[in-house]
Amino acid sequence: MSPARAHQRSAAVMLSTCAGVLMLHAGAEELRPLLPPGDLPVAIRLPSAPIPAERRAAAELVAALSSLTGRAARILEHDDDSLGTVELRHDPALGPEEYRLSWAPAGNALRIDGGRPRGILYGAIGLLHELGCRWYTREVARIPPNPAPMLPSGLNRHGRPAFEYREVYWTEALDPDWAMRNRLNSSGAPLRDEHGGRVVWGRFVHTFAQILNPAEHFDAHPEWFSMVNGRRLRDHTQLCLANPDVRRIAVETVRRWIRERPDATIFSVSQNDWLNPCQCPECAALDTAEGSPAASLLQFVNHIADAIAQDHPTVWLETLAYQYSRRPPRTIRPRPNVIVRLCSIECCFSHPLDGCSEPSNVSFMEDLRGWQRVAPRLYIWDYTTDFAHYLLPFPNLDVLAPNVRTFATHGVRGVFEQGNYSPGGGGELAELRSWLLAQLLWDPNQDMESLLREFVNGVYGAAATEVAAYLESRRRIARDSGEHVRIFDGPDRADLHPDALLEWDTTLERAERAATNDPALTLRIERLRMPVWYALVLSMASADRRAEAARRLAQAARRQRVTHLHEQTRDIRSELERIEFEASRRVVAPPPGVLRGEDHLIQVAFLDRYAQRLHDPAADDHIAVRAVGETREWLFQWRPRAAVTGQTYRARARVRIEGGGTPTNAALSFGVYDPSARRVLANRVWRANELGTETYGEIELAPVSWSGGAYLWLAPSGDTNAVRAVWLDRFDLVAGPSQ
């Protein structure tokens, strides 16, 4: 929809809170009119030699003020005596995104002074925000009718973002016009000069394989890659960070990157997206002495940073504090031209990062404080959805504001909020989270409840009461459950009990009835209902309710043009077929004392590439997961939500295989991993001749003392001579000692 049409539509259907906004700012101050008396046009005066973003600022003011006041507005490129002008002025003393709103000394114009490239543009957005204008979604804006807008006579607003880099990595937030109007400088959005540009990366995260690709170099130079348990790795490898040739090549590569991308200011030199840091004697000695594998990584990045600093003083190198490199080293410090980006991937996201007693959150806060003390520029990579189930209700609304405030109070200068970034978008509460995060990244001190109410009223109109009731019920039930929720969890959460899902569906059905006469609103309500239907399909609800939810979900997903149900979706058509297939699952209750992970609760990596969920009459619930034997990936992972820390458990898996030609070779591995402690608690390898090829059998690990956040994993051996495929029916966790 064009901005003009969105403005017209919102003016017709959205309630204006402009007076409330002004009362909030003005208090008892005297107000003065923004516009000249009579019908004189509104004049927007450009600065001398305006850049594209400043012309766009004027165009935004013309469009919005014309719609808001019903009066013509025009852009002036020279001085004019018109009353009621808005004067745009470049002030080099202000930062690149900083602005001031005030009355001109002569009193005949409102002034927006701003830095470059985005200060004046953000000041124009700030002025319109003062007048009650909002851009909630790509489709819904609010330009409230106000023929005679007033502003305080002593107006003096100073605007500046809390973070220098603000990225909301949801599809809905990557639209350049929406991102600009919500003052995001996202690297992933196609923000052109007219939008004020963006923060530009020349290379973006997980770049070790771009520096040296093992497929090209391992055979000739295995010493360039990770040594793990005494041998160099070709697959899932990192770099040997102490090797002088690797350092030389890395410097040459980064210099080439800079030549190729002169517009970029940040280049990532960071680990690949898996474990296996190098354990060669030199790397291991440094990491041991410094108490973290971040030591060898940071020393490596510092070496490159020193090499480019003189020739490229405006370029920053970024590296990740991620998984094994999250803890800062004891004494090694980042160079002044190095950005450290700390990642929260292991954390609980149903409680604030600061204050949650869950060990992963406690350790994250220790690492955040550690990096705050030593990093010249600290960025954050944060996570805001369930990546294994984009449509699963994710209980993080209560933590968005506290977490952003935590980042701000601990010296963070840039924040990346990752969500569902798939082409089709449509993740659970995608539009709401995108808008809330954009507002909080600009000003973390805003009241979350006020923002939430404003969005619900502005976007859902006639259905707002029921939508608000739905969101409040979700938040209350999640709080009452007390569960720690992570970003790859399945649907086996207490807050997703079938009774709650049916209550939410009924509430949203009432919302849909309230929207009957508004097709666009009806579609927005449908986007809210899809996650409830998705959870119902995977729940213990009756077969009829699950089948109905699957049918409606598949129809809605096609209508809404959803492309991904999880981060690794390869074919949405087969995914939607699988939804209806999942509804045919036979519900089987586990025996007393057994925590059960049926295949629909298991996170399956590389679904459709290495693994498939299939009908199997021999499986307990008539569905199993089949994985080809050619990979050693931990394809199947399950974190038992109800497992008690400190309790002793036996981990079991019900499996069968399709055998190969060498039955004495390894067929699969099975284990328990604790990501917080970064260690395997138990594991074992089974040979093909120890497993059933026609019928399922149970395999079991030695008893383990459980720790919070640990999960079970199972992987084929990668040896197709031993196993063509592995079938997994379920995982079990059984309390008590081995029998």
Verbal overview:
- There is one protein chain.
- With 739 residues, this protein is of the alpha/beta class.
- The chain has 19 helices and 31 strands.
- The strands form seven sheets. It has a seven-stranded parallel beta sheet, with helices on one face.
- It starts with a helix and ends with a strand.
- The longest helix is centred in the C-terminal third of the chain and has 19 residues, at 519-537.
- The radius of gyration is 28 Å and the shape is globular.
Shape descriptor: globular
**Termini separation (Å)?**
66 Å
Helix content: 25-40%
- On the 0 to 100 scale, the average pLDDT is 92
* Number of DSSP strand runs: 31
| Number of helices, where a helix is a run of at least 4 consecutive DSSP H or I residues | 19
Radius of gyration, in Å, reads 28 Å
Q: What structural class should be given to the helix and strand makeup?
A: alpha/beta
Q: For the largest sheet, list the strands in their spatial order.
A: 11-19-18-17-16-15-12
Largest sheet: 7 strands, parallel
Amount of beta strand: 15-25%
Low-confidence stretches: 1-27
